[in-house]
Write a structure and sequence with these properties.
Number of domains: 3
Number of helices: 11
Order of helices and strands: EHEHEEEHHHHHHEEEEEEEEEHHH
CATH topology of the largest domain: Uridine Diphospho-n-acetylenolpyruvylglucosamine Reductase, domain 3
CATH architecture of the largest domain: 2-Layer Sandwich
Distance between the termini: 53 Å
Oligomer: single chain
CATH class of the largest domain: Alpha Beta
Bound molecules: flavin-adenine dinucleotide
Number of strands: 14
Radius of gyration: 20 Å
Mean pLDDT: 96
Structural class: alpha+beta
Strand order of the largest sheet: 4-5-10-6-7
Length: about 300
């Protein structure tokens, strides 16, 4: 008897060479066609029979989906088929851009391992929708948006809210994401990323945070996002509001952490209990925010 995990179901594999061609296929076959990018999530879900497809549409042959461009004042544009390693390589060669998007860089270098990062894409990592992914946290603190196109038009969708569960998103079956925009961070911002995990495994708690002008309440900006701890990527907006108060930054960190721990819906699974995750969220968030504020991160 064969184990379903090791076998792929039958499907028709198509590899369009233009966006127009890909959109035609999606329009014609609707729910029966599924987009494959790096394919890491898609192949695993197909093998485990968690996903069905009559057509697998491999988008890696579409030239305009491969790009990385930083436009000052607007942000960092990353094409849908750009791999995590290609992004890391770009940021390694552009130290100024890397400093602006430090949390994205750190999350990328901690995502799986070097072999997987050669195939995995930032867009695919977010859209796969598992709770433990590394790319969504930085996307939330940089208020990222995805550009989706179909035969009937185009739109920009905020990454916050785009994922509804594993392989479930707000995208329509006939839409392709062409690129993601990580918006320009506020002036004077520093950002960072902490992943609590065993070796290259998924994180139990991942924290992305951004801090600008910590000691000037009038200009202070703080953004915090979690993955790994929560069923869906979670931007801690209520906790961010705490930093609008005129009190010293350090005191507000304590209050913000209490707000997160009291309000958030936390995962409980064989990797970690909900209580341990909440404890880690407190410790890791405090450490990251304080270090960012002191300029030590
Ligand atoms: C051993 C192992 C370890 C891993 N460790 C980590 C880890 O530490 N951290 C982490 O974050 N991830 C980890 N992963 C997950 C892996 O990084 C993701 O599966 C991968 O990033 C998904 O990207 P992809 O390009 O392969 O997407 P695909 O699998 O091709 O696609 C994922 C989903 O997104 C949709 N999609 C993709 N691109 C588009 C598009 N342009 N338009 C519309 N829909 C699209 C697909 O239809 C599918 O639903 C691990 C995976 C494995 C196997």
């Amino acid at each position: 008897m064969s184990a379903p995990y090791f076998t792929l179901p039958e499907f028709k594999y198509v590899k369009p060479s233009s966006l127009e061609e890909a959109l035609e296929i999606l329009e014609e076959h609707g729910e029966e066609a599924k987009i494959m990018n790096g394919g890491i999530g898609v192949v695993a879900f197909l093998k485990e029979r968690l996903m069905e497809a009559e057509y697998i549409v491999d988008i890696k042959g579409i030239p305009e989906l491969k790009k990385i461009e930083y436009i000052p004042g607007k942000g960092l544009y990353v094409g849908a088929t750009t791999t995590v390693n290609e992004l890391i390589e770009f940021l390694d060669k552009s130290p100024e851009v890397r400093e602006k998007y430090r949390a994205l860089y750190e999350a990328s270098t901690h995502l799986a391992d070097a072999i997987l990062r050669n195939r995995a894409t930032i867009v695919g990592d977010i859209l796969e929708g598992l709770p433990y992914m590394d790319a969504p946290g930085p996307a939330l603190i940089f208020e990222a948006e995805m550009h989706a196109v179909s035969k009937s038009g185009e739109r920009w969708l905020p990454v916050d809210g785009i994922v509804m569960g594993p392989m479930m998103t707000q995208l329509q079956p006939n839409e392709i994401v062409t690129e993601i925009l990580f918006k320009e961070p506020p002036e004077g911002a520093r950002s960072g990323y902490v992943k609590f995990a065993s070796r290259t495994e998924y994180g139990i708690v991942n924290v992305a945070a951004l801090v600008a002008h910590p000691n000037d309440p009038g200009k202070r900006v703080v953004k915090i996002a979690f993955t790994g701890a929560t069923p869906l990527p979670y931007r801690a907006r209520e906790a961010e509001e705490v930093f609008k108060k005129p009190e010293p930054f350090g005191k507000l960190v304590e209050e913000a952490v209490r707000v997160i721990q009291d309000s958030v819906e936390v995962l409980e699974d064989p990797y970690a209990s909900a209580d341990f995750r909440k404890y880690l969220m407190g410790i890791l968030t405090t450490q990251l925010l304080v270090k960012l504020a002191r300029g030590e991160w």
